[in-house]
Amino acid sequence: MKLSFRPLILTAMAIGLAASAAAQEVPPAPPPQGSEAPPPEPVPSEPTPPVEAPAPAPDTATPAPVAPVVPAMTPDQYINNPEYMLDLDLSTGGRVVVQLYPNVAPNHVERLKQLARAGFYNGIKFHRVIDGFMAQTGDPTATGQGGSQLPDLKAEFNDTPHLRGTLSMARAESPDSANSQFFIMLQPRFSLDHRYTAFGRVISGMQYIDAIHKGEPPAVMSRIVQMSVAADNKPMPPASALVEDQPAAPPAITVDELNAPIKR
Prior knowledge:
The protein has 264 residues and is α+β, with helices and mostly antiparallel strands. It has helices spanning 6-24, 75-78, 106-117, 206-210, 255-258; strands at 85-90, 95-100, 128-130, 134-137, 166-169, 182-185, 198-204, 224-229.
């Protein structure tokens, strides 16, 4: 019998090709336990800013110069400080002492001190005095139209109330027209608050203010005999100088008037 090996060879070749194809379809083995690559970290997102107004962009322009702020005086710096007190020696018979308030009206306080030290107020009369309201002075002409040679002051309206004894500056229609005239309150009048510059208050001698002759103008005008800054230590004038002017006596009736014929 004649054997043929050709079919066997073909069969063997077919089995080998099938095994090779099967080997190519096997998935790769997993990596050893514990060596697995970590999952990729998430890409961090931008943090959410807080909800608020953004800061303004810096101004690159040259900033305007700012005037220095002068701190206001505190009460312990001016209360009972003779440099901020006035002595008014009146023809009604005595001395009136005034406490000034430089913390609320520094320019007005400085003006009164300046004029007082110059002797401006010596002899000036109270030309307008309304009973139950106020007594006004500071006009060398005693007409209500006069003042000093210094420029008018800019208003320094403040919260100081117009109480009995309060000193405040008189002015014309313009708020910035105060100069040298001032008034002293005889009774409270709060309607004047924030309309006139209050700058001080009587602390002793109010009885001499009450005694000022009333009128618009008064028939006999009381006057400031001497006004000074307390720090200057000016003595009070003698009592003989602190007297009121006497009203003019009525004309005497002459003999001729007595003998005048009776008209029929």
